[in-house]
Amino acid sequence: MAHSAVSHSQVAVAVPSGSDISLRRSVFIKRNSISFSDKSWASTLSLNLKSQNAQTSNQFILCMSVQQARKSKVTVSPLELETAKEPPLNLFKPKEPYTATIVSVERLVGPKAPGETCHIVIDHGGNVPYWEGQSYGVIPPGENPKKPGSPHNVRLYSIASSRYGDSFDGKTASLCVRRAVYYDPETGKEDPSKSGVCSNFLCNSKPGDKVQITGPSGKIMLLPEDNPNANHIMIATGTGVAPFRGYLRRMFMEDVTFKFRGLAWLFLGVANNDSLLYDDEFSKYLQDYPDHFRYDRALSREQKNKSGGKMYVQDKIEEYSDEIFKLLDGGAHIYFCGLKGMMPGIQETLKRVAEQRGESWDGKLSQLKKNKQWHVEVY
Q: Which residue, 93, 154, 164, 296, shows the most beta carbons closer than 10 Å to its own?
């Protein structure tokens, strides 16, 4: 992707935010021919971010990631991230990862949530650009117990921010990480020796800690932007909401070239109200863009489905099946992200609904895939 060369320019960008933090960016952008396949492009960008108020990193990120949704659309930079024609792919590989820096780690869930989920902001200095829907690989420190002398294997995490990051300067990426812990089924006690190495490393990280990252990777979950009037149905369980947060920030929070005019419909399945992720952001979009955003929550431990059982995302899909099928027939994209165990129940529900409508689900699914309307990323 070549970028047309223009004269150097310096601009001051005023960024609206919450009342406790006021930011002004002085951005110097040197524009030149840039290619995501060549890491050297990053050296042509020099950005300076200054905060007028002394705040901790944690306070800053909490404000920018949640309270920012309460303001008008935000000016972003560098604009070169808008003009690339193809997504960046595998700029850094496992044998030569990029050393990034932890900016902040915030607990996202309330006290009644089963388990802990954290919002982790990583500073990549603008050197590992990505698009919404892509993933980073993370290599936790230490030695791989199965391969003595070798580093741990790469763990993939869907990126939970737009390409501009939570500070809108193209220098950070955010991850939504659930701490993986293991409880002995006999004693009921946690066994630290069997805890998830990477998720615990990330959730235990402190600002300033270093983290080895690879990527970005993935194309299946990229947000199609060729038609701003297209409709998008997003179905997530737990941390699978990560890529959809990036989509929605691009659609509704940021002042970018993509002027979304379709419908974005998010279904989020979690255990209970305390387990909801980024709920403040999504609720604000619902308030500000009621004609373009719908948001349905499935709380398995607090809601009942029509049969009196636990409410899962597939129950919500069935509840709104007529509308969903009409949107799909009209060309809507549908995305699924979360634990792989979510898909059998969803597929069964869609098949049952299709049969009730006198349709063949296998034929419909084949057509959706052929039309590139069907996007799945489960783990």
A: 164
